[in-house]
Amino acid sequence: LSKRYIGLEHNVWTEFTTLAVQHNAVNLGQGFIDYEPPQYFLDIYDETVKEHNKFLHQYTRGFGHRRLVEAISNVYSLYFNRKIDPFKEILIAGGAYPSLFNAIHSIINPGDEVILIEPFFDCYEPMVRSAGGIVRCIPLRPKPESLKQDISSSSDWILDKNELELMFNSNTRLIILNTPNNPLGKVFTREELEHIASLCQKYNVICISDEVYEWITYDNKKHIRIGTLPNMWQRTLTIGSAGKTFSATGLKLGWTIGPENLIRLNQIVHQHTVYLCPTLSQEVVARCFEYELKRLNSSECYFNSVSKEFIEKRNQFAQVLKECGMKPIVPDGSYFMLADFSSFVNDEQFQSDENDKKDFKFIRYLIKEKQLAAIPVSAFYTKNHQYLGENYIRFCFAKHPETLDKATNILRKLK
Ligand code: PMP
Ligand code: GLN
Prior knowledge:
Blueprint: H1 12-22, E1 26-27, H2 39-50, H3 66-80, E2 90-93, H4 96-107, E3 113-118, H5 124-130, E4 134-139, E5 141-142, E6 152-153, E7 157-158, H6 161-167, E8 172-178, H7 190-202, E9 206-210, E10 236-241, H8 242-245, E11 254-257, H9 260-271, H10 279-293, H11 302-323, E12 327-330, E13 336-340, H12 358-370, E14 372-373, E15 375-376, E16 392-396, H13 401-414
Parallel strand pairs: 1-14, 3-4, 3-8, 6-12, 8-9, 9-10
Antiparallel strand pairs: 2-11, 5-7, 10-11, 12-13, 13-16, 15-16
Helix pairs in contact: 2-10, 3-10, 4-5, 4-9, 11-13
The structure holds 4'-deoxy-4'-aminopyridoxal-5'-phosphate and glutamine (GLN).
C-alpha cells in the first residue's frame, strides 16, 4: 500500500453496509432512499435512455457535458446572483466524492493545514491526509441545557467563536464546511457563516462548501451558500450532488462551482484521474435541471417539495426514538438523525472487540442480533475526539414507510 494510504484502511461504509447485507438487516444506515425517485425523473430517465441517435453512448466534453454545465449555470446563476460561466466556473465529476477529492488534492501541499468541523462527513479526513495535509479539528458542542432534554435540536450544536479563530494560522490553507451537515443535520445560520467567512478573509483561507443536502431543510430554516456572502465568491468552491438533489444516488454525478482560477486547479486533477464522466447520466441530470428551472418558484418544484416528503418521516421517527428511550437530536436539514443511546443500554450487553468504541459495539449488536442497521457517530470524528461521538448513532429516515415500520418494531422491542 502506498504510504499515503497507510492508516486509512478502515471505512465505516464498507464495513457496516456489508454487515447489514450479511445479516439481512433493516437498513437505516447508508443515506439513500429505498423507494422510487420522483415520477418526472423516471420519465426523463426512460426517454433519455431510448434516444439512441443522440450519441449518448459515446464520450462527451471532459470537464462536463455541455448541456449539463449550461443547465447548472442557468439554475445556480439565480442562487449566486451572478452569471456563472458554464465552461470556466463549473466542473462535473463522478459524484460529490470526487468533486471533494479534486478540490482538496488541487489545493493542498504537504504540511498545509485544513480545518474540519466535527462531526464531519468521514471522507474529508482521508482525502486531506492522502494529499499530505494536516487536519485541525474543531467540534461543534451541544449547549449544556440541550443535553438534559429528551428531544433536542441540531441547532443546539454550536462552534465556539474564539476556539474557531484559534484554529487559523499562517499555515491554514482550507476550511471544509458542510451545510446542511451530515451526520448532525445542522443548518449553519447566516451569522455563523459570516464569522467563518470573516476568518477565511483575515487568514487568506479557501473554503470548500459541501452543500449536497442544499434542498433538504425543515421548519423554514434557510440554506445559505457561503459563496454568496460578500467577498467569498473568489475563495469558495461549492459542491453539489445529483444523487442527493434528485434522490437517485446511483447517478453518481457531482459539480463544483467557483471562480475560474480555482476551478482550473480542479480541472487539472480531474483531467489526470477520470477525465470525463458518463454521458448518459449527465444528459439525464441536465434535462432534470432544465425541467426544474421552468418551475423553480412553484411549490411543485422538487427542490421546494422534497423536504415536505421527509418532514413527516423526521417527526415520526423522532417520536419513536424518544418512546423507546433514546434521545433524538432533531435535524434542521438532511435526512439523518442522531440519537443518544447512552442511557438506553448497558455496555455489558454487547461486548465485541475490546478496542471498539461504544457506538461501534452497539451497532454491531444491533445489526447481528436485532437485524437493524445504523451508523456509529464516532466515525465522524478524528481519533482524539471520538469520545465526543461515541454515545450517538445515526439513522437515515429517508426510507419507505414499510422500512420505517419494521425499524420501529425492532426499536420498540429493544428496551
Ligand atoms: N458529501 C456529503 C456530506 C455526503 O453525505 C455525501 C454522500 N452522498 C457525499 C458528499 C458524496 O456524495 P456522492 O454520492 O454524490 O458522491
Ligand atoms: N452520504 C451517504 C451517507 O452519509 C452515503 C455514504 C457512502 O455512500 N459512502 O450515508
